[in-house]
Amino acid sequence: MDDRFDRRELLLHLGDMLEALNCLSIAGQPDMLVAQLAAQEESLQSFKVLRMVAPGMTVGAFGACVASAFFHWPKELLEAEPNRNALASTVQHDLFDGNPDGWKTYVADMQEKVKWFGTGLPEMKKRNADGPPLAAEMDTSPAEASVEEAPLAEWDEPDDKRGWPWPQPGSTS
Q1: What is this structure's pTM?
Q2: Are 58 and 32 in contact (CB under 8 A)?
Q3: pLDDT tens, 82-109?
Q4: Which stretch of DSSP H or E encloses residue 25?
Q5: 72 exposure class (CB count in 10 Å sphere: 0-12, 13-18, 19+)
Q6: How far apart are CA 51 and CA 106, in angstroms?
Q7: What is the per-residue pLDDT across 151-165, written as a single tens digit (0 to 9) for each?
Q8: CA separation for the pair 9, 110 (Å, rounded)
Q9: By CB count within 10 A, which of 20, 71, 130, 173 is most buried?
Q10: Which residues of 104-114 are buried (b: 16+ CB within 10 A; e: fewer)?
Q11: Would you list the domain boundaries of the chain?
């Protein structure tokens, strides 16, 4: 399967998320609501994701959620076979926990570029306003649950770089 264009789109999206986070940080108002700041600042209005997060999310919380949701993306996208569920489930779990409407909008937007993004994940439940965060109820994060441990025999095998992003022997790319 040739998924280099999907990987490219996901890396571009990661860059957009970091840019949005940087723009929010520059505003220097960590206790302000993301939606409120995005509505006020013209420089933030191009970031659609800021309109998808939970209405009560602060800039500080958004920063922590983005860091948690996307920190493993670069490594995962360099794997020969990236774990698609892990890529999407950490974003669902860390950035959209308790916000199924925002998640559905986010997935629809992402699937315009990466058709498989977010498919096959369980339905989200809306968080009760008085209840604890849904993520706190789980023992492990979706990324931890979806990672398969490599058998010890594979640890001693040579680390050949084959396939994307390393070209096949004899290829001109």
Answers
A1: 0.72
A2: yes
A3: 999 999 999 999 999 999 999 999 999 9
A4: helix 4-26
A5: middle
A6: 10
A7: 545 445 555 656 666
A8: 9
A9: 20
A10: ebbbeebeeeb
A11: 4-144
